[in-house]
Amino acid sequence: MTLHQSLAGLVVGTVFAFGACHASAQTVPPPAGVLNLDASASLDVPQDVVHVTLSYEQQADDPATLAGALNERTEKVLLAAKRQSGVTAQTGALSVYPSTDRDGHISGWRGRSEVRLDSHDFAAVSKLAGSLSSQMQISNVTFSLSPESRDAAQKKLSGEAIAEFRQKAADASAAFGFGGFTIREVSVSAGESSPPRPMMMARMSAQGAPKMADVPLEAGDSTVTVHVNGSVQMTH
């Protein structure tokens, strides 16, 4: 037998062997007694952070003068807001844009600046926003769940969702006549939802506006949910 014939026979034998293994792998039946399950647990948690947006609008003949006036007003409000303990103040959006006449020519400039207030202390923010209303008007109020409250809720719900998953697996295994189960794979995820309920305030110039009384703030709830998905192998 020549070397060429030996190599040819080896190649053919390898191909047949691979084909036999591949066919054998294709005929392996899927594992029996496997259940795909899911479970979840939810909790309504009171929103404990308030976000108040203050805004100031002005117009001028040139953009440089307008930008200077907006920055001056913003800095003044920020300085006053940062004196209030328990409230975080930061600058928001600032925009300057032209006003045009009916012929499309620039007739002036308009601008808007914002300051955002964030706090756990609703009463402090309410009082502060009211005291600043002669300089900046309230344009928007929203509420959210703090990371601490969210994490605490997820920790509690994770235990409940996992316990429900295991109970479902035990009940289903018993119903199918098995004595128990082992977990094949599992994943745990969490989410949060809340109905949109922003308090939109009317836009108006703060120039010459009187101070407002304390703004009533009432938050809603956020729904925190933990999902558990996976599969189990039922055992005798």
From TrEMBL:
It holds the Pfam family SIMPL. Residues 1-25 form the signal peptide. Transmembrane segments: none annotated. One of its GO terms (biological process) is DNA damage response. The keyword Signal applies. Keywords: Signal. InterPro entries: 26kDa_periplasmic_antigen (IPR052022), SIMPL/DUF541 (IPR007497). PANTHER family: PERIPLASMIC IMMUNOGENIC PROTEIN, SLR1258 PROTEIN. This is 26 kDa periplasmic immunogenic protein. It comes from Pararobbsia alpina.
